[in-house]
Every structure is written in structure tokens, then in C-alpha cells.
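Methods: holo model generation. Sequences were used as deposited, without trimming of termini or removal of tags, and paired with ligand SMILES retrieved from the corresponding compound records. Each pair was processed once, and we did not select among multiple samples. The sequence and pyridoxal-5'-phosphate SMILES for this entry were:
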Amino acid sequence: MAALIPYHDRDGWIWYDGEMVPWRDAQLHVLSHGLHYGSSVFEGERAYGGKVFKLREHSQRLIDSGRILGFELPYSVEQLDEATNTTIAKNGLSDCYVRPVAWRGSEMMGVAAQASKIHVAIAVWEWGAYYSDLRLTRAIYDRPAPNTAPVHAKAAGLYMICTICKHAAEAKGFGDALMLDYRGYVAETTGANIFLGIGGKLHTPVADCILNGITRRTVIDLAKARGIEVVERHIMPAELETAQEIFVTGTAAEITPVRAIDALTYQVGPITKQLLDDFHAATRGVQKVAA
Ligand SMILES: Cc1ncc(COP(=O)(O)O)c(C=O)c1O
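and the model returned the structure below.
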């Protein structure tokens, strides 16, 4: 395995509370509320040829996630868009991953933190394919019910179970975990939405307790534009056996074919191939996609 370059020890610039700061100076205090109580939200974005795909939707989701957690980001969607573009340009990058994050600061310690300052940072780096030859195994935790967690926010706290599940999957030799939801329906992986090709149609879980991914919505639009019927519904795990092709979608994952789920194996089918082409064109601005 190539040597890890720690993320805190890199060259470059990070946008931090409205200022551009040298990468290694982008630090926070150990008594930050976001660290102790999970009061943190984030985004994952990708730039292609210097342009972030669906930037406005990502900036808006960051603001919305903060509101779901009860805080208001001190920047507008326009200011976040501009800060993102400035950060990419300052780092001299073109194709890169973008990580905005917002969190409660260290003014108050304790569960209540109404007076804490809301901090925002944006970092960018080159990041290749998120998955390769993806094989999934059933996760050890389920996605929580909407009345037990803020499931529609991209909130850092929700990823606690994702990291545990992903580590458990990797320990068994798999690439990621397939999570079910609190009712036992197929939900998503720890960082991507899932689609099943069954009999020429595309089936995907209803986004009622999972992240309604921006890539998920893009892929639904692309499929419909090709005349492929998309069925959003509750999917039982036993139905994984009836799928001819399966892929996952996400900003980091883009569209990644699934090669296996435990003992079940899949080929890269015609729907996946078509959508891989269309997504490639859409992200590079070759073809107009519905917003
Ligand atoms: C749990 C989870 N589901 C789905 C997605 C896909 O979302 P998007 O396509 O907006 O990146 C992500 C990635 O952000 C994720 O972390």
C-alpha cells in the first residue's frame, strides 16, 4: 500500500471562516462542540475541469443540513459558491474533490450550545476513484428511523455508524457495507445510494430515511431522459437476487458498478453502461442535465 500522506500535513490553502489560510494552519480547539457532540455538517463535491458539478445544490444542502441541526451558517449560498471556486483556483486544481464543513465552536461546553460560533471551512484535494471492483457485504448497523435521527441532513454524527460498518466490511475483505433501514429494506452503502436493474427498469429505494443524493437525482434524470423507467420504492433484501445489474451513486463514488453482494455476483449491464457514459458527459458539461 502506498504511504499515507496525513491530511493535516499537506501543502495548499484552506478557506477558513472567510479567510484563505495555509493548509497546516487550518486548526480548531479540542473543546469544539462539533468534536464532542457531533454538531457538524459537511458536503462532498467534485470539480470537473475546474467547475463543481451541481455546486449550488451542494452549497444549499450544507445550509439546509445546518438548519436541521439547529444552526444558521454565517454565509449565503452565493458566498459559499464563490468561496468554493476561489479555493479551487487558489490551489491550482481542476479535477478535484471539495470538502466544505460547518461546525459549532468552543464558546460553550455541554449539550446546549446556543451561543457557540458557527465555523465554516472548505478544503480541496485531488481524489481519484472512491471504489474499485466494488463488493458489498451486509452492514452490522441499520439506517435509523426519521424520528430517531436527522436523517435528511448530511450530518457528521450519522457517519459514526457508517465508519463502524465500513471497517467491519473491510475486515471481511469487502469494499463497503450495504445498509438496510430500520424497517429491513435496502437503504444505501455507507457513502452512496444504490440502484438495481431488474428486467430493463431501474429500481432504487425511496429516500425517506436515507440521503437523497445529488448524484442519485442526477442519475434518475439521466435514466428518464433515455426512456428508462425508474421505480422509487421499498426494496426487500431478497430482491437483490432478482437484479441483473446493480450500481451505486455518489459524489465521491460517481457511478460505480457493484460486482458482488456477499455471495451474489453481478455483471456491468447495459443500463449501467449507458448511465456511466451519460454521467461522464454530464459532469464534463457535454450534455445538459436537468438541475
Ligand atoms: C450516506 C450517503 N448516501 C448517499 C450519498 C450520495 O450523495 P451525493 O450524491 O449527494 O454525493 C452520500 C455521499 O454524499 C452519502 O454519504
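The first strand starts at residue 13 and ends at 16.
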